[in-house]
Design a protein that fits this description.
This protein is of the alpha+beta class. It has 16 helices and 18 strands. The strands form four sheets. It has a seven-stranded antiparallel sheet, sandwiched between helices. The chain has a five-stranded antiparallel sheet with strand order 5-6-10-8-9. A four-stranded mixed sheet has the order 1-2-4-3. The longest helix is centred in the last third of the chain and has 20 residues, at 389-408. It starts with a helix and ends in a 14-residue tail after the last helix. The structure holds flavin-adenine dinucleotide. Residues 32-33, 68-76, 79-80, 91, 111, 133-135, 139-140, 142-144, 146-147, 149-151, 200-201, 205-206, 327, 416-418, 453 line the site of flavin-adenine dinucleotide.
């Protein structure tokens, strides 16, 4: 793209220090956390103000430039891999927490605010922002909203969508659109915010986000249930829910992942266990004691060899340190890590875990499985080496098999990682042709020149 005249215009709008064209810079924005081919943009823009962001989008639209907005680039579905020669707009300089309103329990943020920084700022006021993707130390709230990110607390607290009260976003033509409000209730107009949450940068670019806050629960208790057989662990997940207990977190880890984490983080995990469930309950102290006792009793009844209840905050932190280390620990084992997020109705978790095991044997691949079992959301993680073409073919076949199995069990392609380009080819399999065409009509009505993250989710 970028002829000199246009580059100069971007420089005038954003300041020349916020316009990047060097190959090294472009390379840095050519890929994300998905295992996909990178694609070089021709220019990277870093607006520092709303005006800058809006006018950059307007200029991109006037010149029909494919434009990919990017937070931290941690998405796992290729959502920030730009179109070849396109524009990347990075939101890292729009990182202000504009307001935390303690009276009305909401916050207003710019899209580039780091998730964990926001959660900590809110917590310092005794408030709680529950969505906590594993990447929260680096991911941005804009990226979380665009992916409708989940995390470890989805079972009780829901996902990002459940906390978005309002959005201010730039449409493809650079016009500022306002959706939602700072009120608990708002039915003014179409639910545009609902359309934009999870739209992966294809329908608009967030400028400001209004997020719901809730009071911090008074007490928490974490525990680790140890199982000698995987089916017993997976059946316990369903049993906990069936007994109407809704822990904040209900995570699964198989033996391969347990050993990888212990080898990496040395947190004292039982390496001989076939599977672990990591569970946390929260709420009023009396309720927490009651729920924790019920969960412990249920785990034992379902066949757990042991249940370790964290005695204090330090032990609790260790449980979550172990869980959060899972991906990093697995990633050390082979050069390429493919993290999937097949999701099934909760009652189908035992069947899905068994199927992943079968698929791993059928395709002779190393797969470590962990994830948000309480949400039916597993992360089978294939450890491989992309340079080995023969093995990579088997990996692709195994990924297809995992998705098809999840769909056959009444599940979905993605519980939280989004579709991007990685899974767009499967969209029709889960929905139907009419749904894809309907979605494309929305896209072309709102972005007639198809500049915003073209090709993502619904293809072209
Ligand atoms: C180690 C690791 C752990 C993870 N754990 C989880 C997890 O537990 N749960 C989970 O849900 N995900 C998880 N993820 C995936 C990822 O972190 C999330 O999808 C996250 O929301 C992406 O945020 P980001 O700032 O990196 O966004 P990016 O990757 O930069 O962008 C993601 C999408 O959002 C769009 N976007 C970004 N900013 C804007 C904006 N201002 N306006 C409009 N669109 C925008 C982009 O175009 C892209 O389509 C994990 C990833 C890693 C690497």
């Amino acid at each position: 793209m970028a002829d000199n005249k246009l580059v100069n215009k971007f420089r005038e709008l954003l300041g020349k220090e916020n316009v990047f064209q060097d190959e090294a810079d472009r390379l840095a924005y050519s890929y994300d956390a998905a295992v996909l081919e990178p694609s070089l943009p021709s220019i990277v823009l870093r607006p520092t103000t709303s005006e800058g962001l809006g006018s950059a989008i307007r200029l991109c639209n006037e010149n029909a430039l494919p434009t990919t907005v990017r937070g931290a680039g941690t998405n796992l579905s290729g959502g920030t891999i730009p179109s070849p020669g396109g524009v990347v707009i990075v939101t890292s300089a729009m990182n202000e927490i504009v307001e935390i309103n303690e009276e009305d329990l909401y916050a207003v943020v710019q899209p580039g605010v780091i998730t964990a920084k926001f959660a900590a700022a809110v917590e310092s006021k005794g408030l709680f922002y529950p969505p906590d993707p594993g990447s929260q130390a680096v991911s941005t709230l804009g990226g979380n909203v665009a992916e409708n990110a989940g995390g470890l607390r989805g079972l009780r607290y829901g996902v990002t969508r459940d906390y978005v009260m309002g959005l201010e976003f730039f449409a493809a033509d650079g016009e500022l659109i306002k959706a939602g409000a700072r009120t608990v209730k708002c039915v003014t107009g179409y639910n545009l915010g609902g359309l934009l949450v999870g739209s992966e940068g294809t329908l608009g670019v967030f400028n400001k986000i209004i997020l719901k806050l809730i009071p911090m629960p008074a007490a928490k208790k974490a525990m680790m249930a140890v199982f000698s057989e995987v089916p017993k662990a997976s059946e316990t997940v369903s049993a906990i829910i069936a007994n109407r207990i809704f822990p904040v977190t209900l995570e699964f880890m198989d033996n391969f992942t347990i050993r990888a984490v212990e080898d990496y983080a040395h947190v004292g995990l039982p390496v001989d266990a076939a599977a672990l469930l990591l569970i946390e309950v929260d709420g009023h102290p009396v309720q927490v004691e009651e729920d924790a006792a019920k969960v412990e009793e249920l785990c034992r009844r379902m066949g757990a060899m042991g249940v370790r209840v964290a005695r204090d905050a330090e032990e609790r932190d260790k449980v979550w340190e172990a869980r959060r280390a899972a991906l990093s620990a697995l990633s050390r084992i082979k050069p390429t890590t493919v993290l999937e997020d097949a999701t099934v109705p909760r009652s189908k978790i035992p069947a899905m875990i068994a199927s992943i095991d079968e698929i791993s044997r059928k395709f002779n691949l190393t797969i470590g499985t962990f994830g948000h079992a309480g949400d039916g959301n597993l992360h089978p993680t294939i450890l491989t080496d992309r340079r080995n073409k023969e093995e990579w073919t088997r990996v692709e076949e195994a990924i297809d098999a995992i998705f098809y199995r999840a769909l056959a069990l009444g599940g979905t392609l993605s519980g939280e990682h989004g579709i991007g380009i990685a899974k767009s080819k499967f969209m029709e399999k889960e929905t139907n042709r009419a749904t894809i065409l309907y979605s494309r009509r929305i896209k072309s009505a709102l972005d007639p020149k198809n500049i915003l993250n073209p090709g993502k989710i619904i293809g072209e």
